[in-house]
């Protein structure tokens, strides 16, 4: 422009776009900020000269929201380079029990040929047990086969536990029969599955336990604990006494878990004296042992003894937990000890963690209604943020028991 003015030559106007479409650098510099997706934490920033009138590359589209059918578009090659970040997302969804999202990402990985590690599958199996979804369980099992991990002993043990926890003991047995068992853990998973299914699988537990002994597998405390729980549920006193003798012979009676299980079994079989003697033999009693004793006394309609045992526990300096509360509140209602119930209620309010638990709120409603204090029962019921069938049943039963059928 300086050379042209010195020659007194007036430049011809050039054709071009309107001035409002031009962006001088000092007014509008090009700033392109590209943030990568969640699987790469790097952020790239590119500064350049003024933007051309017609961009050489089309503007980038905004990323689409997550959809199951198109979880990750093919335009994102970064997943191939950073699979561990994808594993973390799958584990996050699994921990949140969001199986639909987790399985969608798993489908994407298999479609792209990206292998999945054992830790990720372990998280998915645990989520299947929590949500008790047999459909999700079978999908996870199929993905394990696709990844060539069906012979991994750790995952096989988890699969046995998964199927048993979802109520399909037949599938659990099928996985178990394909295993080359070298430890006690697969046996324990199968035992626990039969115990979870309840009394009707009592003989299955005994058969599995006999097979364990015949196979030469070294039994541990957890194996006997599962067996005793099954015997307690079936009220099988004779088998329980035999098991007690085996434990003494093998020197496993010192375990607190075993003694607690035996106390619970004897109470459920109606052998209160045996349970009490076993309780007296425990030198260091924790809250679990005390809980078994209190619940057992209440189960056998020894309400006053259960209350006295609770006082004894508190004097020993053992803190009351949610299990103790749900065991003692029905006992208080049955003996109509409203004053003691109010003390327990005050403790629940003071302990904010317990005051928010729905099953404790329901137990308080039931206790007040049994004591004839419908006003306090209604206050607890309507003061609770959540209500379920148990809390509604407790309130309605209280109306019926107290002759107030006009309430609804």
TrEMBL record:
Keyword list, A-Z: Repeat
Any GO BP: RNA modification
Single annotated GO MF: RNA binding
Superkingdom in the source lineage: Eukaryota
Biased composition (Polar residues): 1-11
InterPro entries for the chain: PPR_At4g14850-like_plant, PPR_rpt, TPR-like_helical_dom_sf
Record carries keyword Repeat: yes
A Pfam family recorded for this sequence: PPR
Location of region: Disordered: 1-22
The PPR repeat ranges on this chain: 117-151, 286-320
Entry protein name: Pentatricopeptide repeat-containing protein, chloroplastic
Organism of this sequence: Sesamum angustifolium
